[in-house]
Specification:
The complex is a heterodimer of chains A (303) and B (358). Chain A is mostly helical and 303 residues long. Chain A is globular, with a radius of gyration of 24 Å. The two termini of chain A are 14 Å apart. Chain B folds into two domains: 224 residues, 3-Layer(aba) Sandwich (Rossmann fold), CATH 3.40.50; 117 residues, Nucleic acid-binding proteins (OB fold (Dihydrolipoamide Acetyltransferase, E2P), Beta Barrel), CATH 2.40.50.140. Classes of the chains: A mainly alpha (303), B alpha+beta (358). Chain B: One of its GO terms (molecular function) is ATP hydrolysis activity. Chain B: It comes from Micromonospora saelicesensis.
Chain lengths: 303, 358
């Protein structure tokens, strides 16, 4: 019988981890495994830990040789500097964080609002040359975005979108819409069309049927898709660097990168800004982790 | 009122011609069954009437008014889906209330209607559950309640009993007939189960490969099949078809047997024919003046009766017999034929040649 997307995907990770068979070495093997995993974890997490540590070290300790791993003075000065300018007003960095929130948020909302109905239409209706259209949509993601930086720059200069938040919102939306359509089409395909048929016979229009009975079932999928879109827009560096220049428009990635260079680099500030920058995405991904797994494994596990 | 008329429905999916000129006239208040094997276009016909399928050609009239282009909501029909299509995130109560909510009924009206329906279908204690917490039979009742909760022009049912186990199916068959009688509405009921068709229908339309083969009462379809295919599809055990031709006052079988030529047939001499014999019109226990000789091929005890397979030449004839009948395979047998109840079909066109004389 009909299985809702909810039931289908919210049952945790799709794979059950069975303990690895201990064929040779017995306990020794598992000690080796733990050791290797520990090494791997340290290697992977060290830069992150180092970043966090640097962000709370006093400048003196940041430059200390040999590096101080544990015995340094903890300070939150750098975090204050991220948000507050030396003269007491708002710092340029805090403006760029706000810009990032606006740009990433708006482009994600736009991509979702445009992409979800499009995905629904591609899933439900007989569209002429549907496969070709879908391939065309996907093909926009084939090449690395960097390739089109110059043409976009020239076009934007013509229409006055250079150094403009709207310009960034539009370009990120353009990159996220195809992704949203493809991802969401998979989710819509999983919801039986008969719910909408039944709703239409109950007396609803097709759009009402979609809104009342299909859309609620798509919420996990929308959450997963939106988080991916958000992460893309939040992290995007190349277009932000090329298309913006003033502090009032700049998003966080180029702003943080801009801190490096010049005569001296305030590594404590760079580290603190980076931590602040990484946090929202981590929090979001954590909140929707269930749905993210669903989004990644959907289609791979069913049918 | 609730008359439905579909004329010349045509619909293809890619290269598959799902509907090839389907025409149906459903009278007001009738229990109209569309019967056919899977892939015959039954569901597509129903969806076309409901407005869920865009037609390539043809028209749908509801109560005499052309409704071909109307949206499903405007047609004032209710449908029970084979998969039931209960809204998974809504309670049973909300599922049943959905058609009334769409029509902006007041909550007191809705409560009263849902209560009435749930007591009619004995699902009062399920109202706060969600579809996932229901058994197949319960889901079926809820789907039925959602359709019956308002009084539409007609009810469309797409194999509503197929997903139930046999016992429940038999129960629901009786119950559906009872409901139909008590509300007197038009039912269009799609099924591939001939027992459902014969036991419930006022009218049966037999569909094959997107074409209507025959429309009639269950008795007509069973007793006077329009063609060889309908004869073979309706009836269990299936009708036995033997190749033969008419020669003067005799029927001569391809396997060498001869029978008196039935007086009702108009078939011309020498034309290839098929003689259709239903199991209950044959006997291995009684003697008559028309009989076929063969050997026992197998016995199929079914409790209340036993089906005897008799081999006549290379063809198998199924004969209904008392449950006590015994025999050993290979044993010689005489099969008595009730020729008044036999059928003759043109072997080339498949059309019945029995109609004229009866």
């Amino acid at each position: 019988m009909a299985v809702s997307v909810d039931e289908a995907v919210s049952t945790g990770p799709a794979r059950d981890h069975t303990p690895p068979a201990r064929r040779f070495g017995g306990r020794g093997r598992s000690v080796l495994e733990v050791a290797l995993l520990t090494v791997l974890a340290v290697v992977m997490l060290f830069p992150v830990l180092w970043m966090i540590e640097t962000s709370i070290k006093e400048n003196r300790d940041v430059y200390a040789i040999p590096a101080k791993l544990f015995d340094f003075t903890v300070t939150l000065e750098h975090y204050k500097d991220v948000f507050v300018a030396p003269d007491g007003g708002r710092s340029a960095l805090s403006v760029s964080f706000l810009n990032s929130v606006v740009v990433a948020g708006a482009s994600t909302v736009l991509a979702t609002v445009l992409g979800v109905p499009a995905a629904w239409a591609y899933s439900r209706f007989a569209v002429k040359a549907k496969k070709d259209q879908l391939f065309f949509i996907l093909s926009t993601r084939f090449m690395p975005p960097v390739v089109v930086v110059i043409p976009i720059f020239l076009m934007y200069r013509q229409v006055g979108l250079i150094d403009n938040k709207l310009g960034l919102i539009l370009i990120y939306t353009a990159f996220n819409v195809p992704f949203t359509i493809w991802m969401m089409k998979g989710f819509v395909d999983e919801v039986p069309a008969e719910y909408e048929d039944a709703a239409m016979l109950d007396g609803y229009t097709r759009l009402q049927a979609f809104w009342r009975y299909t859309l609620p079932l798509l919420v996990p999928g929308i959450a997963a898709t939106a988080v991916f879109a958000l992460i893309f827009s939040w992290n995007e560096f190349v277009f932000a660097t090329f298309l913006t220049s003033s502090d009032s428009v700049r998003t966080a990635p180029p702003a943080i990168a801009g801190l490096i260079g010049g005569t001296t680099t305030d590594w404590g500030l760079v580290a603190a800004a980076s931590v602040v920058f990484a946090l929202p995405v981590l929090v979001f991904a954590y909140l929707v982790r269930k749905h993210l797994i669903a989004g990644v494994t959907l289609g791979a596990v069913r049918r | 009122m609730g008359t439905l008329a579909a004329h010349g429905l045509r619909k293809s999916f890619g290269k598959v011609q799902a509907l090839d000129g389907v025409t149906l006239d459903v009278p007001d208040g009738s229990f109209f069954v569309v019967l056919g094997p899977s892939g015959a276009g039954k569901t597509t016909t129903l969806r076309a009437i409901a407005g869920l399928e865009k037609l390539d050609a043809g028209s749908v009239h509801l109560d005499g008014r052309d409704a071909t282009g109307d949206a499903p909501a405007a047609r004032d029909l209710a449908m029970v889906f084979q998969s039931y299509a209960l809204y998974p995130r809504h309670t049973v109560y909300e599922n049943i209330a959905s058609p009334l909510r769409a029509r902006r009924c007041s909550s007191s009206e809705i409560a009263a209607a849902v209560e009435q329906m749930s007591s009619l279908l004995h699902i009062e204690r399920l109202l706060q559950r969600r579809p996932a917490q229901l058994s197949g039979g319960e889901m079926q009742r809820v789907a039925l309640a959602r359709a019956l909760v308002r009084r539409p022009r007609a009810f469309l049912m797409d194999e509503p009993l197929t997903n139930l186990d046999l016992k429940l199916r038999v129960e629901m068959r009786t119950e559906l007939t009872r409901i139909h009688r008590s509300i007197g509405a038009t039912f269009v009921y799609v099924t591939n189960d001939q027992v459902e068709a014969l036991s419930m229908a006022d009218q049966v339309a037999v569909l094959k490969e997107g074409k209507v083969q025959q429309v009639g009462t269950p008795t007509e379809v069973y007793e006077r099949p329009a063609n060889q295919w309908v004869a073979g599809f309706v009836g269990s055990p299936p009708i036995s078809l033997l190749a033969c031709r008419a020669e003067g006052d005799r029927l001569v079988g391809a396997e060498g047997w001869t029978l008196p030529r039935p007086r009702w047939t108009t078939a011309e001499d020498g034309r290839p024919l098929l003689l259709g014999l239903r199991a209950e019109d044959l006997s291995v226990e009684q003697r008559g003046n028309a009989s076929l000789s063969g050997e026992l091929y197998g016995l199929e005890p079914l409790g209340d009766r036993t089906v005897v397979d008799v081999r006549v030449g290379t063809e198998i004839v199924k004969v209904k017999a008392r449950p006590t009948v015994t025999g050993t395979p290979g044993e010689r047998l005489l099969v008595t034929v009730d020729l008044d109840r036999a059928h003759l079909f043109d072997a080339d066109t498949g059309l019945s040649l029995s109609e004229a004389g009866r």
